[in-house]
Write a structure and sequence with these properties.
This protein is an alpha/beta fold and 134 residues long. The protein is 28% helix and 18% strand. It has a domain of 86 residues: 3-Layer(aba) Sandwich (Hypothetical Protein Ychn, Chain: A), CATH 3.40.1260. A 5-stranded parallel sheet has the order 4-3-2-1-5, sandwiched between helices. It comes from Thioalkalivibrio nitratireducens (strain DSM 14787 / UNIQEM 213 / ALEN2).
Length: 134
């Protein structure tokens, strides 16, 4: 089915939450959420990616710089930076950090917007129009 310009106009202004649980152990799953988030933000939607479980490792300094979704592919950090330029907000789950020995004040990349409790994720989910998980 070919999408028309009118179809895209019907989908702007929505709140989208992407829950990212995948991390370095599954690099093939780590580019798409940022790419899709960038596309959705470019379509005038409010997009937030919430990192929890192993997903928090992508926000750890030095991890995404050394990863690609496929051999020879673009580094994951570039997808993260593209998403930030598009207006995607990045949230990190505070309760998940100690399990990976990540200190929020020193070990996170500058692209992180907020470090939140699980209750913030609950609020984001209840306010979202669409929720995606990776």
């Amino acid at each position: 089915m070919l999408m028309t310009a009118e179809h895209y106009l019907d989908n702007e202004g929505q709140k989208v939450v992407i829950i990212m649980t995948s991390g370095p152990s599954e690099p093939a799953r780590c580019a798409t959420p940022f790419y899709l988030g960038s596309v959705l933000a470019a379509m005038d939607n409010e997009v937030r990616i919430f990192f929890t479980m192993e997903g928090v490792r992508l926000m750890q300094t030095g991890v995404a710089e050394g990863m690609a979704a496929m051999e020879g592919g673009k580094p994951i950090i570039d997808f993260i930076r593209d998403a930030k330029r598009a207006g995607v907000a990045l949230h990190v789950c505070h309760p998940a950090l100690p399990g990976y020995k990540i200190e929020p004040s020193t070990d996170l990349i500058p692209e992180v917007d907020e470090v939140n409790r699980a209750s913030e994720l609950a609020d984001l989910l209840l306010q979202s129009d669409k929720t995606l998980t990776f």
